[in-house]
Amino acid sequence: MDDERWMKRALHLAEKGKGRTSPNPMVGAILVKDGKMVGEGHHAKAGEAHAEIVALQQAGEEAEGAILYLNLEPCTHYGKTPPCVPQVIEAGVKRVVIGMEDPNPLVKGKGIEILRKAGLDVEVGILEKECRRLNEAFCKYILKKEPFVVLKVAATLDGKMATRNGDSKWISGEASRRFVHKLRDQVDGVLVGIGTVLKDNPMLTARIRGGRDPYRIVLDSRLKIPEEAKVIGTSPSKAIIASTELAPKDKIEKLEKRGVQILILDSKEGRVNLKSCLSKLGEMGMMNLLVEGGSQVNGSFLDEGVIDKLLLFLSPKLIGDQQALGIFGGKGASNLQKATALKEIKAKRIGEDILLEGYLESGTE
Question: pTM score, two decimals?
Answer without folding.
Answer: 0.91
